[in-house]
Amino acid sequence: MTTNPINPNALEVIPLGGMGEIGKNMFAYRYGDEIMVVDGGLAFPESHQLGIDLIIPKIDYLQEHAGLIKGWILTHGHEDHIGSLPYILPRLPRVPIYGGRLTLGLVREKMNEFGIREADTDFREIELDAHLNIGRHFVVDCFRMTHSIPDNLGYILTTPVGKVVHTGDFKIDRTPTDGQLSQLERIEKAGDEGVLLLISDSTNAERPGWSTSEAEVARNLEVLIAQARGRVFVTTFASQTHRVQSIIHSAKKLGRRVVMEGRSMLKYAQVAETLGYMEFEEPLITGDEVASLQDSQVLYMCTGSQGQPMSVLSRLAFGMHAKIALKRGDTVILSSSPIPGNEEAVNTVINRLYEIGVEVLYPPNYKVHASGHGSRDEQLEMLNLARPRFFLPWHGEPRHQINHARLAQAAQRPPQRTLVAKNGDIVQLTPDDFKVVGTVPAGAVYVDGLGVGDINDEVIVDRMSMSQEGVMIITAVLHPTPHIELVTRGFVKSNRELETQIRRVAMESVEQGLREKKRLEDIRDDMYGAVRRFVRKGTGRNPVLIPLLVD
User: Fold this and answer.
1) Alpha-carbon dihedral of residues 524, 528, 530, 531, nearest 10 degrees?
2) Which pTM value belongs to this model?
3) 106 near 268, Cβ under 8 Å?
């Protein structure tokens, strides 16, 4: 059922993901009977979300108002901005989807993997300074912003109520390796004309100063590679196209041939090369060709910067790679920092690498990584350029958003009002007001194997309970001779006395229920309660208990 906006003369800004979190970024703008959508990203599970592969935004609001969607903007090709599209787009009508050449190249690659035909989508490649009309109410002027991937854009959205500037993910890199500077003059011009609302990247709101330039990282990496005597293994985000390119240039300069290991690393490199964002001065070599080279002539680019269990670096660290074994004399460079939540996995890999005896180089001991997100001084410059009446800090956990909101008070012209919003908030914007007026359904949809949305928080709690306390299946067989069967996993090691006592308690409960001629369902529930109380009192544990009754 399509509902009318709360105020037909106001712009509704509705974050469906990316507020109060790192990941699954997604916005919907609504004015009257039109909606424009921005991005559709995913997030990766935290350690307690056992078995979950990916997390995507809940799109109930967009499905309910599907007929109002007029167009879609993609800011760049990172997973937290495009990763959920193969799951989302088939559930929504076909509308124009605008993005840069590399962004759409990566999205098309994803669609092919999922078997989604090009004819079922409407991708429209744009230049980073494109001027777009989406529906009757939305005029979009895009501008280039430096980040950790090419074709990254922000936009100025002109609406009937005023201008909205959305920075997208950004840093202000004065020396980007591709020479493509941020188009800050576009933001300053919008500020001169009057910006009603600024939506700005909050990720590094706790870091003082300026972020490190990608050019400095490239120089530091080249020095370390030059100093290495044996094989060099470098891991970074597969989407760090600029960094991968600079490492390839350094390898060529230092007489090393490059081997790429890892599916995502190869996929990003192939798409970037095909579209002209990356060049290989020498062809990549395969693992089989390495045997003819000396160790000092080889550099491996591999996946695993976040300690993912099945990534190349993790398999190397635990001696599980089918073709490559690390050895003393090798150098491993982690050109990345852990995403919040991945610290433990990354530290485990690093410790294993030390145990093998390889040289391990990683931040902050070595300046081999630069964030793609601006620090406080860059965020303040953005505020001073846009000079907005209202401010909405975005893309960060609550601490990042709140610190960004506080920073805004130091701007040359502080915003009249700042809101720290949550996913699902309906943020109403008029020329004179800026407030949350309601909510829409929002949250996490779990992707587990081939299942999308068939796992909820209740299932996650069950999985956690089983992982921490174990599981016990107790079956009462009533005929021909009543007896109890017991199966446990992850509970305690074999304990005949305890198992005998559990069977006795279960049998006593069943026999009492039969004497009292209770319903089978009630007998089963009584057995469950009696066994649970006994196990909790006797062991102090609470395994997941599954009672069965076989008549």
Assistant:
1) 130
2) 0.87
3) yes
